[in-house]
Amino acid sequence: MDEGLRSELSKQGVFTTTLEELYNWGRRSSVWPLNFGLACCAIEMIAASMARFDIARFGAEVFRPSPRQADLMIVAGTVTKKMAPQVVRLFNQMPEPKYVIAMGACAISGGPFKQGYNVLKGIDRYLPVDVHIPGCPPRPEALLHALMTLQQKIAAQRLTGPERPPHARDDAPAEFPVPQYGPYDLNPPHNPEVWQPAAVVRDEA
Amino acid sequence: MTRLAAAVPGIQLELVPNGSPGNPASLVVDPAQAVAAAVFLRDDPGLLLDHVSNVTGVDWLDTVLKETTRVKQVIDGVEREVEQTTERRKPGYLEAVYHLFSMARKQGPVVLRQRTANRVDKVHVASLTPVFRGAEFQEREVFDLFGIVFDGHPDLRRLLMWDEFQDHPMRKDYVEPDDYEYEPTPHDEVLDKARRHYPVGATP
Asked: Are the beta carbons of B1 and B37 closer than 8 angstroms?
């Protein structure tokens, strides 16, 4: 529908919408996060859900303890290699459509523990992360901003056509392989369908 | 210490001084008598050390001691003084360190140490978990990261690493897998890794 006609109609008291818009409005306004935290970022996540920052303003206050009832996984904190298979398994158990926010330096890259022996260098090696939040830990406002970014992303999703989201496509993976424990590292060390190492060319000594 | 020696017959004790200010000397006990010594330290009315605040491990590598001596030798019929260097290998060991405090008498710490025979196969010390219940998880952590086997521990499994993990990451000779990935501000050892993995001008 033409935007001018639509604004004219709304001035006359006629509200028009599309099924897609209505559907996405409903989805983005009731994103239910999975109730789990891995480290100190989880404390900021809890603060964001409390009265001062009040994540309920965005419809995301219903933290579900079961992955079967959750839409959004907030990976809040350091993902150790011992914990990573469980995180992937929890994500596999969530119903579609589902989203991932990687919160904090550790979840997006390993953070200060990147060179350590037991820390995963970012959960995006195994899961399709929608929004990355930098910070150590990020402020609750940063989490709210990430949620708003995710809402914009959901609102822009098409239900049909070639740009439809993964959950509406048959060729996209329905679940992600759970890494196995190896003698020194996880096997495989990353999921090549989700993540490839960045091509970096160093130009200085 | 003399009372401890009197209470536990046949105990082998060694007092290791600590140079830094305020830090008390630590007591090295033989693993065979460690449980008896711990029971004494816990139950003696003058000590009442009822709280283990910390259990940790220390890895002492093998050290090579070099000794240079001047010896007179006859070479080609001429007597000369030659420097001779002898190397002596001192085997390393692993050490479990316990910090004991007394809640009842509000004093401490008393530092208790147990040493293993070597770093490779004789890595057993006595578990003090039967004496101090709070040492259980900390001894499991030391077992996990240093590979010290605590005889008598009720549930000796890895604590932080997964069960399939090999090696012990906190040992000084631990070699981590070469899985470097680029980060924007490498420095020191990480810079060396960056140079090795991403040579200047190389096409990825």
From this structure: no
